[in-house]
Amino acid sequence: MRVTIFGASGLLGKALVREWREDEVVGLRSRDADVRDTDRVRETIEASRPDWVVLSAAYTDVDGCESNRDLAFSVNRDGAVNVADATRRIGAKLLFLSSDYVFDGKKTTPYEIDDTRNPQSIYGHSKSEAEMRLLEILSSCCILRTSWLFGTGGKCFPDTILKLAAGRPVLDVVNDQRGCPTYVVDLARAIIQLCRKGASGIVHVTNRGDCTWFEFARDIVRCAGLTTEVRPVSSKQMERPAPRPAYSVLSPASLQQHDITLPTWQDALPRYLIERGA
Ligand SMILES: NC(=O)c1ccc[n+]([C@@H]2O[C@H](COP(=O)([O-])OP(=O)(O)OC[C@H]3O[C@@H](n4cnc5c(N)ncnc54)[C@H](OP(=O)(O)O)[C@@H]3O)[C@@H](O)[C@H]2O)c1
């Protein structure tokens, strides 16, 4: 199988390139092909002639998207459309990375793939509109929604917590947003399996289990053997530019239909800490 990955220099992209061993993989950074550049995207895809295109590239600064609306839509929606158009032209398959932030967080039970999109942030809107456009352009594409990524290839929540905990006796962390932390190594392995199985349609992929950011931070500190006290606070006490869903747990049912099960986030966290320390 030949695979072209947009966003290969990102947190997930680096894990994908590392984990994807048995196939012929081309990994692209933004300077190789900016997804906003229609011609460049087309030339790059036509030159690499992949069976699968994995679109992990995105403008992922959720707060930054609020003040850079045009950038958010041009990269996350219009860039995705460029990649989908070029993918369709050569008859390849497309797997697009989307987000739990397409939901409003008002549910209290896990989100299923056919639950109504109702994004609350500009980032969520840009991903939601991309999903809808992609399904029009390439009805067989695979839209993979995931959440709360962590890994060693870039900025992520556990890394921030560990750096802060190293220099502070107390950390305040929000306890009123619940979701599913996801280790990019486990996500990358699931993506590889989904491509091998020829998956299409919407699929939710996260590590199993859910928690609040506070609960996640408390386990990160404990697992790392640190003594920093982690205190629960509300989102109101830590206001940020972009609203986040209070509850964005994604149901694993769609992934189970592909006979794939991910480990729990509690299983993934120590593996991440080992990788980070290595
Ligand atoms: N992080 C999360 O918690 C999370 C949660 C849910 C869904 N997702 C989605 O999962 C995917 C991977 O996220 P991530 O955390 O790995 O992202 P990331 O670390 O922020 O990496 C973003 C990647 O996108 C590339 N990129 C940015 N703008 C580009 C452009 N205009 N043209 C081409 N490439 C561009 C970057 O390339 P350069 O570095 O070379 O500029 C980088 O490789 C994204 O689609 C994201 O929306 C992430």
Question: For the residues shown, what is the average pLDDT?
Answer: 97
Shape: globular
Total DSSP helices: 10
Query: Which structural class fits the helix and strand makeup?
Result: alpha/beta
Radius of gyration: 18 Å
Cross-sheet strand order for the largest sheet: 2-1-3-4-5-10
How many strands appear in the DSSP assignment?
12
Write the H/E string, N to C.
Answer: EHEHEHHEHEEHEEEHEEHEHH
The share of residues in helices is 40-55%
Biggest pleated sheet: 6 strands, parallel
Flag low-confidence runs.
Answer: none
> What is the CA-CA span between the terminal residues?
31 Å
Ions, cofactors, ligands: which are bound?
NADP nicotinamide-adenine-dinucleotide phosphate
Instruction: Give the percentage of residues in beta strands.
Output: 15-25%
How do you describe this structure in short?
This protein has ten helices and twelve strands. With 278 residues, it is of the alpha/beta class. The chain is globular, with a radius of gyration of 18 Å.
Explain this structure:
By secondary structure, the protein is α/β, with parallel strands linked by helices. The protein contains 10 helices and 12 strands. The protein has helices spanning about 10-20, 40-50, 60-65, 70-90, 120-135, 155-165, 185-195, 215-225, 255, 265-275; strands at about 1-5, 25-30, 50-55, 95-100, 140-145, 150, 170-175, 180, 180-185, 200-205, 210, 230-235. Strand 4, helix 5 (about 120-135) and strand 5 form a beta-alpha-beta unit. The chain is globular, with a radius of gyration of 18 Å. The model has no long low-confidence stretch (mean pLDDT about 95). Bound molecules: NADP nicotinamide-adenine-dinucleotide phosphate (NAP). NADP nicotinamide-adenine-dinucleotide phosphate binds near residues 8, 57 and 99.
